[in-house]
Amino acid sequence: MGQLLFLPCNRLGILSVRESDCKGDSLKTQDEDAMAETHDELEQLNALFGREYRLGKLIGRGAMSTVWSATRLSDGFEVAIKAQRYSDPEGMRTLLAPIEKRLEACREVDHPNVIRILDIRSVIGDDRAIFVVLDRSGPDLESWLREHRPQLTIGWLLARLAEIAEGIEAIHQKRIVHCDIKPNNFFLCQELERGLVGDFSISLTEEESGKHAQEDAWGTPAFVAPEQVLATRFGTSVDIYSFAMSIYVLLSNEYAFEGKTVQEFIYSQMSADPIPLRRRNRNWPTELDDALMKSLQKDPDARHRSAPELVADLTRALAAHTPLRLSSFLHGGDLSRFSSTEVRVRDVLGDST
Ligand SMILES: Nc1ncnc2c1ncn2[C@@H]1O[C@H](COP(=O)(O)OP(=O)(O)O)[C@@H](O)[C@H]1O
Ligand SMILES: [Mg+2]
Fold it and tell me: What is the arithmetic mean of pLDDT over 43-47?
């Protein structure tokens, strides 16, 4: 059987594509298709936002989204407009209201360490999509570290993590579970000196996540908490788990589990113990593993109570290491495989979950 590639589709019908299905497409056709789509999208964006914003360039592309730069005409404020597209028109019709309600709840978060949602507009029909206007940020932390790790110190990363932790706390104060805390959803501001949390694409209100079993569990394999995998009731402590996992990866450039496939990774989150950092490099202090392993426990109640609490332990553990360069502990590895794509767990593990 061909391996399944999973693309995020945010509760509106999974887009799962077999590798073998992709092989027939020539690159040229894909490029032409992408250019035509980009052109159509720009026209749609201009029709929707042209009176208030001057549209700029395409600045990013996710599996189910495109992100454009734009400038607010009234005051020159720089924004990003994210178009989230859905594969299933029927699903979009029935689920639009809950998605909009969630995004409206996320819009309430107004904090210097969170990328704000400034506006939300939906289009139903052939061009179905939800458009979200966001504060425009600088690069995401995962990409920034990939390029600049040799110049960065542990102290620099700790400062960004402390800011990001405040952002996570602000989200939790508004009773929202982010559900997708990971390094490529952490951003730097445009001046590069402040950390931010972004991307509410699969977030839930605490009321939704805590009320009943989730119809669809979504998450990113390398970071998803075990109770989120099981799609039972869960709360903000899933974000604390994913935050600890993100810190592990940012510090060490390694995953906490050794899995070859998405399935192995998700099973490890549910049943295996993460590999302590000191087993990878003896120079890490024991207190660092103590801090991380506390929030990486399977039992949500045993974790740190908040993201800033975790960072406080981390800061104490690394107090003597702040001037050191991050690259002094570098292990290396390909982190792209399980870090960026959100999956619907049911599709990975089968309906038995
Ligand atoms: N608010 C923003 N400001 C600037 N760039 C952004 C913003 N949001 C997203 N991006 C860029 O767009 C890319 C795609 O983001 P996103 O749609 O969240 O996709 P994914 O999470 O699947 O990577 C990101 O990697 C980032 O480079
Ligand atoms: Mg993202």
Answer: 91
- Look at residue 193 in the predicted model and tell me its pLDDT: 93
Domain borders along the chain are 12-135, 141-352
Residues in Cβ contact with 243 at an 8 Å cutoff, skipping those fewer than 6 apart = 164, 165, 168, 181, 295, 307, 310
Query: What's the CA gap between 177 and 182, in Å, rounded?
Result: 13
Instruction: Give the ligand at the shortest distance from the Cα of 140.
Output: 1
State the CATH architecture for 141-352.
Orthogonal Bundle (1.10)
First to last CA, the chain: 21
Question: pLDDT tens, 131-163?
Answer: 999 999 999 999 999 899 889 999 999 999 999
CA dist 174 and 236 (Å) reads 11
Q: Which residues pair with 6 in a beta bridge?
A: 16
**In this model, does residue 29 exceed pLDDT 90?**
no
Q: Give which of 140, 249, 227, 110 is closest to 179, Cα–Cα.
A: 227
Mutate to test the pocket of ligand 1, among 6, 64, 81, 82 (most ligand atoms within 8 A of CB): 82
CA of 321 to the centre of ligand 2 (A): 30
